[in-house]
Amino acid sequence: MTKINWDLVEKGLERDGHRMIWRPYGLPTVASPEYSAFFDGVVSPPWDVPDKLAVSAAITGAFFTPNENPNQPITVEAIRDEAMACAAAGASTVHIHVRDDAGYNVLSPERFAAVIEPLKESYPSLAVDGCLVAALKGEWEAMLKVLDARLLDGVPINTTATYVGDALFAKPMPMVLAKTRHILESGSLPIIACYTDADVNNADRMLFRSGLMSSGSAWLILPALPGCSPMMSPRQMFEGLLRMSGLIYDVDPDAFVTVCAAGRASTYLVTIAAALGLHIRVGMEDTTWLWPHREDKVPSNVRMVEAAHSIAELLGRPVATPAEYRSLVGMPVASGKLG
Description:
It is a single chain. The protein has ten helices and ten strands. It is an alpha/beta fold. The strands form two sheets. It has an eight-stranded parallel beta sheet, with helices on both faces.
């Protein structure tokens, strides 16, 4: 056990006259958090953090069913209604998947149109992006039909080869390159979706070094699900997000980076992402849990959008309007017409 020499302590107090050492050289100002008396200039300038926070609402995704979350929207009507509610709640943009009658992801131009057309009729400036992953026979042709219909303002590109849960999810390089070309030719925005840090390197090699894409692109970080960049603790969450976002900025210094409230990390992840100056995606595609440390299930997409607005208010970053989101990612102003 440490023992203190109190006699020496008392001698020190007497020597210093029972006073702290203090030399206020900048009087009459004692201490300013902004300026110094010795030079003209700002000591603590404002941080370089974007004022606006873009909030994307990802409605259902391809993975989770009512078995994982009984609140999961599956039908066209439920997906459309949730998207409408998120737009009304102030989402900057909406991300769409559609499901078939059995509840599985499907690339159906008719079902996409059934969700997107009424959504854009009610919210003409709203940018809608959607996932067009051609995994089954005939889905590549269906993807091209959706692109040709000009239903989507943006489409993710998954530069990945990873296990997501128990499923192998791998995009061959020819598919990544051809899909990116088709997205660009359709006038949609390619969004580079990364599940692990290796995906960033794949995007660099396939898309940027090939000249197909250039700096200032839109990126999506989707970690924390089983098989994706692991975030099994707060330390892993912070380290993983800093590494992935740093790698993206190494490739694309002007990148527009969105981080998903994914897996167990859920709302904690997007809270620190917003504090880092990144943008966020919330919703029932990327997680079933409200918080990392409890078992509460996400009750609705609107609840997540409302939580994002609370985060934005706390951090002083107002949520971007749909028109502001378009400007941030370089999308054209909405014409109010599909096709």
